[in-house]
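Anyone able to model this chain together with adenosine-5'-triphosphate?
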Amino acid sequence: MNSTDIILKADKIQKIFPSKEGDVRAVDGVDLELRSGEVFGLVGESGCGKSTLSRLLLKLLNSSGGTIKFKGEDITGYEKNQLKRLRRQMSLVFQDPHTSLNPRMTIYDNLARPFKIHNLANGREEITVEIVRLLKSMGLQAEHMIRYPHELSGGQKQRVVVARALAVDPEVVFLDEPTSALDVSVQAKILKLLAKIKEEKDLTYFFISHDINLIRVISDRIGVMYLGRMVEQGEVGKMFKEPLHPYTKGLFSSVPEPTPARRLDSVLMGEVPSPVNPPAGCHFHPRCPEKMAICEKESPAFEYREGRKVACHLYDLD
Ligand SMILES: Nc1ncnc2c1ncn2[C@@H]1O[C@H](COP(=O)(O)OP(=O)(O)OP(=O)(O)O)[C@@H](O)[C@H]1O
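re: yes, here you go
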């Protein structure tokens, strides 16, 4: 596949969670294209739907509407046996290494599971060979295999979590805040390792982070989400040079040059409204400094403008 091939595509994907307060519109009609070999960075304030979107794309959650295609094949209605195949093609690295490994299992047993589930190696001997190879590729040693997760440092645990995600030899890896639970110095090492693995294995990364500076450095393209919707999506250089959506502008303009782990929540004025009762029209209009009358009534389409996609009425006037 070359870099312009679309490996994963979502059209109007939606997830509504029923709750006591009403329906939570966690993901509200998102369009997305993931290109083979790229790092796609997803940003947005806490609760805007980033994790839910990634779980929908991975088919860990069933969608309430819309379609998802993997390599051109519609996977929206995949059944259990088809999902098993998909689990080898796309894998996930969770945020917190302390909770994503089974604490009662050794590192060997944690890493052996994907080999057993997917019949990727036969017998203890073959699995051991694979696990040692994986551990070494992650900068760990064979002897780590006999340890329990609590005997490893946070960075070592996250290396094991990445190893487990790579055991199935996937094509796409979803990384949901993979370094946010780690110390800054450890974060840098894990990011370097992830970049190296990506090149070696020709992987595609879907990278979720609150840290805009990190997303800027590691991504080829980025998507900005607000209250369940994608508001802007495009090539990283263009987006940072000239953000179009007022939300993206607010998000980026207040981030000074590399300040590690600056949280989005501290950047924008006002609270994000509830996804149970999102504002009519453009969800961002109550916080938007460039609001127009139409923004309160009509939801803007997510359309190509100036080399990227944006959902904002300001650009309807062109
Ligand atoms: N199982 C669920 N039931 C009800 N509501 C849910 C469920 N999962 C998520 N939500 C709600 O959906 C919205 C989106 O949540 P999600 O975790 O996807 O956001 P996020 O952008 O990943 O947040 P964070 O950055 O804090 O992880 C939130 O309002 C959340 O409370």
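The mean pLDDT is 90.
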